[in-house]
Write a structure and sequence with these properties.
Length: about 200
Amino acid sequence: MVRPGRLTVLAGPTAVGKGTVAADIRRRYEQIWLSVSVTTRPPRPGEQEGVHYYFVDDAEFDKLAEAGQLLEWAVVHGRHRYGTPRAAVEAVLAQGRPALLEIDLQGARQVRQNMPGAFFVFLKPPSLDELVRRLVGRGTEDSEERERRLRTAEVEMAAEAEFDISIVNDDVTRATDELVSWMGLTPTKRVDSHH
């Protein structure tokens, strides 16, 4: 179980559903602080500045990285950069509040170097076939991008042993509740809201 003031890092292969689990935590567990990453990629439909990401240009990202203001950063899928603002994470941990970082594998490795006391959780798909289905089903990437992500995912799956625990994302609610219980909180009862 994670002690208060300890960072939890959630990582795993591309398209495994890290963002979906993080969104479920954001919706159902307000006491958990979720880090908002900085990225150079353009927003996807429905993404909001400061909620899903901080969208910046390359020059601004360079400034943050050079000033040591990022806990980790990486070039993802050979194109866009993503990073975690250091000051926000440190401030939340100092308050003793549960904090969660949802990042890619490269980022998780940097966090291990910068904050070795963090708790590392690997989110994995029920199978590689299911991961392929999710990648194709998302429809946000062209075939070349899907192929690149699939190659990346196969490499990323091999990194599971680097993590403290693994959680299978076969059901978002179940995976979220398992993660939350590892963070030392009691899972809440599911409340389905029909609007």
